[in-house]
Amino acid sequence: MNQDDNHAQGTAELKRSIEIFIRVGLILLLLLWAFQIIKPFIDLLAWSAILAIALYPVCQFGARRMGGKMGRASIVLTLLLITLIVLPTVQLVISSVDSAKEVAAELQAGTLKIPSPSEKIRSLPLFGEEIYATWEEASQNLESTARKFEREIKLAGEKLLGVIGGTGLTILKFSFAIIIAGAFMAKAPACHDFTLRLSERLVGKEGEHYVDLARATIRSVAQGILGIAAFQAIAAAAGMAFMDIPLTGIWSLGVLMLAIVQLPPLLVLGPVAAYAFSVHDTVSASIFAVYCVVVSMSDSFLKPLLLGRGVDVPMLVILLGAIGGMIVSGIIGLFVGAVVLALAYQLFTEWLNQKSRQEETAPESAT
Fold it and tell me: CA 126, CA 46: separation in Å to the nearest integer?
């Protein structure tokens, strides 16, 4: 009788184990399926959340001016962002494409003329003589110079088309991200409650602290890295447009990318300033060169004001995040990668510090 009971009990446990295994397997299958569905939108949702957190104080300010209408304020802010950021960027890309087409057409027709270089180009360090010689040859016989560098020109053109195409896709993603961020801001209390419940479920009573830390990190990096990079790109674009520099949109995009990965924008603005000396008078070109240096160095006095308000993020973390994000997700990864890795660094550092504090207080409580 006991043997029969044990057998029945074992059979029941086996059935329960099989049932649990099937349930867990179905849940895992459902989660995996859901992840595969949402996977193409992860970058977009992450960027939308970053924008919403960074811009929420602005939305709150607008809501106070509209009688507390957060939904209305988010709609106005969304339309304003698309108008001020996306539309000018689209115009820059279109103008860059048109300029590239004009250059290509003039090059094929043989009517493209390169102005003679200034003698000051010779005095540039390292490659001044080589740049002057090649530039002088191109100004006298562009067709011959183009044949000499045909392979390099072709590769540069392909990369340029790739950058322009990637920029167009990024603008489209950015537009959708702004719209989704507007929806997040309109439903900010519900989003905050969900995030708080999720974090408390994952890490316990410390969840609210980590949510606050994540919010502070995102806003700090958005203001101190992305905000400064955007400022430098816009300032550089304004200066180049005033000096009538061709392909202003492309050079501005280069400034933006260099600023995000914490490299000096002078790597782009330096050659542009050198070009200005060959087509403008010395006074104007000198003023423009000084302006380029100021724009390139502006982050040195803006970062202490905007970056690290209670958040200490090493520049190496930002650099690795921006480069890694670009490798994984393209141009938009420059923005998302820098913020995500900075956030992960802050959370990991806080976790380590919390463990150290617990170990230090444990002996005291024991005594």
Answer: 44
Q: In terms of Cα–Cα distance, which of 144, 165, 126 is closest to 271?
A: 126
Contacts of 60 by beta carbon, 8 Å cutoff, 6+ apart? 70, 73
Q: How far apart are CA 299 and CA 229, in angstroms?
A: 8
Domain extent listing, the chain: 42-351
Residue that is written with structure tokens 């329960």 in the block: 16
Amino acid of residue 269: L
Evaluate the CA torsion angle 156, 162, 165, 168 in order and state its sign.
Answer: negative
Q: H helices within 126-206, ranges in order? A: 128-140, 142-148, 150-186, 188-203
CA distances from 21 to 27, 150, 181 (A): 10, 64, 39
Place of tokens 């009990």: 9
Query: 43-80 pLDDT, tens per residue?
Result: 788 888 888 888 888 888 888 888 778 888 888 888 88
Find where tokens 């002078």 sit.
266
**Between 248-260 and 266-279, two packed helices, what is the crossing angle to 10 degrees?**
150
What count of other Cβ atoms lies within 10 Å of the Cβ of residue 2? 6
CA 304, 307, 313, 317: dihedral to nearest 10 degrees? Answer: -100
Q: What is the number of other CB atoms lying within 10 angstroms of the CB of residue 326?
A: 20
Instruction: Give the gyration radius of the chain's Cα atoms.
Output: 28
Q: How far apart are CA 53 and CA 339, in angstroms?
A: 12
What is the C-alpha separation between 42 and 45, in angstroms, rounded? 5
pLDDT tens per residue, range 291-323: 999 988 888 777 766 655 545 667 777 778 877
pTM of the model: 0.63
